[in-house]
Amino acid sequence: MPRIPTPASIEAAPAASRPMLHAVEKQLGVVPNLFRLVSNSPAALEGYLGLSGALAKGRLPAPTRERIALAVAEINGCSYCLSAHTYLGKNLAKLDDAEMVANRAGGSNDPKAAAAVLFAAKIARDRGHIGDEDLSAVRLAGYDDAQIIEIVQHVALNVWTNYVNEVARTEIDFPVVSVRKAA
């Protein structure tokens, strides 16, 4: 049961959020619950859309961005984000099931992408306190400083959406994928 109400429609959202939600609808064809939830704060919605839009113009390819999102969602135990990014990974980034399983475990079947996902997972688990060897490994895999900053920013954005969805208990509006239970 959601703990923070999600506006049922664009028209039910605060007036200042409506143009942004219409833009999401135009881009995606639908307005996922996360966007409507965040629209409770027009400032938060503007910030989320601004950062997401800026990072989409970055140098990390879409499949790598989805891989990072899957790893971070698994680490943070966010079934909403895991469900959303499994759907996006499969349908937009064209990741196969084996790849997404690897991503959820903090890796990848692609050697270069594996370095980015491993680095992102380390950042998420250790709250940014990484070692020199972690930075060296991602550089050796071919990532430059700009891409490293983008990896950190993607982790931060995904941690934020994970936390928002967990705090609110957002109703999942994608095919449901549950986080693994810790052993």
TrEMBL record:
GO molecular function: peroxiredoxin activity
Superkingdom per UniProt: Bacteria
Gene3D superfamilies, per the entry: AhpD-like
Domain (Carboxymuconolactone decarboxylase-like): residue spans on this chain: 42-120
One Pfam family hit: CMD
Protein name: Alkylhydroperoxidase
Source organism of the structure: Mesorhizobium mediterraneum
